């Protein structure tokens, strides 16, 4: 639970380092071996996920219709599945320790497995690293895998030094952590100066705070649109050059081939709102074709571009196995939403904007695809109302902050019920909202160009760790 405390309720990266001490003590109270490591690693991962993702039960009850007696075991299945990452990595490390493997095999194995393991909500050992901004700057070189390695290796060195005082682990830990903090501090100042010199774009963020229970109720749709338009007009009166609405905020849907906004009371502009918009909408085509989209709308009402959500959520946005199990079609006439081919960079208010829809901003690989097109800033639209008054919106915002560092782009997040925010290219939160209140944020975003090493090259660490651990496994050398 110490590791989970590094992200909930606030980022506390020191806990990412400290968790290795009791972890190693527990492991070394018995003989090394794959099965024992697997079991203790799974227990550790399970407790971490229970602490960090306890809100899953409420989501299943409120929006899945699950009674508590079903919601609890269903949530437990998720926690157990995500604990397999810890289990596999610790089992591997303990198998190597049984062969005389080095103390650093465990953090390397964890970093390796976390880099490749799928997760429904992928928080990681180094998620809380943004609490130490200098440390987090390494993300532009190696993304989350490199941050994980720095945090895990430093923590394991601390544990080894306390358990068996030796010079080598202490030196390794000090060098790794010192280099990350020192280099990051220098890089922070460089990026801050670069941001200050970059062209500015005043971006208005609308947080309408529309409850899920009435979001699609026909009698409230006109009122939802009026709420969005009124907030937009107020932001434009404060000189917003571009306004962003959250995921599927527009309440009516648009034809897939629409070239301009609807005329009349369903128009997106109105009630004083007249400028460029990035709006979350549902677009539709044939009988079963619907996309979770973001449209770029010009002041004249023309649709300048559409970006579709690629990573859909099982059961919430699509029915798994619908195409392969015909009986499902009797209960679900359509398979759900249609995934987009890839997120796109949209032209809006004269700027190139990279769009991340919903939880795509917690997926490093998806964000890399967008950043590879060299947008000038990143925009995320989300609806986290499903999660209620839990830690999820704060954890979502925390994970998303690393995307700004990886790509060296400002990140603007418009979230229906919060947390909405403006994150600088340094990973610093410059403005944010509370949850479950209407809010309007005017962000002084900076337009930055260029691709970082992480965006251009990607994850070179994982294959390197694979080769290194393979060598350790097959080496006859004793490392103890």
Briefly, what is this?
The chain is 44% helix and 15% strand. The chain is of the alpha/beta class and 480 residues long.
Description:
There is one protein chain. With 480 residues, this protein is α/β, with parallel strands linked by helices. The chain is built from 16 helices and 13 strands. It is 44% helix and 15% strand. Strands 1, 2, 3, 4, 5, 6 and 13 form a seven-stranded mixed β-sheet that branches. A six-stranded mixed β-sheet has the order 7-8-9-10-11-12, with helices on one face. β4 and β5 form a beta hairpin. α4 (56-64) runs antiparallel to α5 (68-98), α6 (105-116) packs antiparallel against α8 (139-163) and α8 packs antiparallel against α9. It is globular and about 75 Å long.
Structure class: alpha/beta
Please tally the β strands and state the result. 13
| Largest β-sheet summary | 7 strands, mixed
Taken from the alpha-carbon principal axes, the silhouette is globular
- Share of residues in strands: 15-25%
**Count of helices?**
16
Give average pLDDT, whole number. Answer: 90
Helix content: 40-55%
Distance between the termini: 29 Å
What integer value in Å does the Rg equal?
A: 24 Å
Low-confidence stretches: none
Topology pattern, helix = H, strand = E? HHHHHHHHHEHHEEEEEHEEHEHEEEEHH
């Amino acid at each position: 639970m110490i590791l989970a405390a590094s992200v909930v309720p606030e980022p506390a990266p020191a806990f990412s380092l400290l968790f290795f001490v009791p972890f190693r003590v527990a492991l070394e109270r018995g003989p090394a071996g794959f099965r024992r490591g697997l079991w203790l690693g799974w227990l550790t991962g399970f407790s971490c996920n229970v602490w960090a993702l306890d809100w899953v039960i409420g989501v299943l009850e409120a929006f899945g219709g699950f009674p508590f007696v079903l919601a609890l075991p269903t949530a437990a299945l998720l926690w157990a599945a995500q604990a397999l990452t810890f289990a596999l990595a610790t089992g591997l490390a303990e198998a190597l320790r049984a062969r005389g493997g080095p103390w650093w095999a465990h953090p390397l194995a964890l970093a390796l497995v976390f880099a490749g393991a799928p997760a429904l909500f992928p928080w990681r050992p180094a998620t809380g690293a943004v609490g130490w901004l200098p440390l987090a700057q390494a993300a532009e070189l190696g993304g989350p895998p490199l941050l994980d390695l720095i945090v895990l290796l430093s923590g394991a060195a601390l544990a080894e030094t306390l358990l068996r005082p030796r010079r080598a682990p202490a030196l390794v830990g000090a060098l790794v952590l010192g280099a990350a903090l020192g280099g990051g501090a220098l890089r922070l100042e460089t990026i801050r100066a670069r941001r200050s010199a970059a062209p500015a774009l005043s971006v208005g963020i609308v947080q309408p705070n529309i409850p899920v229970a009435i979001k699609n109720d026909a009698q409230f749709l006109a009122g939802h649109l009026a709420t969005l338009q009124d907030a937009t007009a107020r932001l434009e009166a404060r000189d917003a050059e571009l306004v962003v609405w959250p995921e599927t905020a527009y309440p009516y849907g648009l034809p897939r081939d629409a070239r301009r906004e609807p005329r009349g009371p369903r128009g997106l502009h109105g009630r004083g709102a007249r400028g460029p918009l990035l709006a979350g909408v549902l677009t539709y085509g044939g009988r079963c074709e619907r996309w979770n989209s973001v449209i770029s709308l010009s002041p004249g009402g023309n649709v300048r571009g559409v970006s579709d959500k690629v990573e859909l959520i099982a059961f919430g946005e699509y029915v798994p196995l619908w195409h392969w199990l015909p009986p499902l079609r009797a209960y679900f006439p359509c398979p759900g939403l249609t995934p987009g081919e890839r997120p796109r960079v949209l032209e809006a208010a004269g700027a190139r904007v990279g769009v991340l829809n919903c939880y795509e901003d917690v997926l490093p690989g998806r964000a890399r695809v967008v950043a590879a097109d060299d947008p000038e800033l990143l925009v995320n639209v989300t609806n986290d109302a499903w999660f209620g008054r839990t830690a999820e919106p704060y954890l979502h915002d925390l994970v998303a902050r690393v995307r700004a560092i990886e790509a060296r782009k400002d990140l603007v997040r418009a979230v229906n019920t919060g947390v909405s925010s403006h994150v600088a290219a340094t990973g610093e939160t410059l403005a944010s909202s509370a949850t479950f209140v209407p809010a309007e944020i005017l962000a002084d975003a900076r337009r930055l160009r260029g691709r970082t090493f992480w965006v251009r090259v990607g994850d070179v660490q994982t294959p390197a760790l694979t080769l290194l651990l393979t060598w350790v496994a097959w080496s006859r050398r004793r490392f103890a």
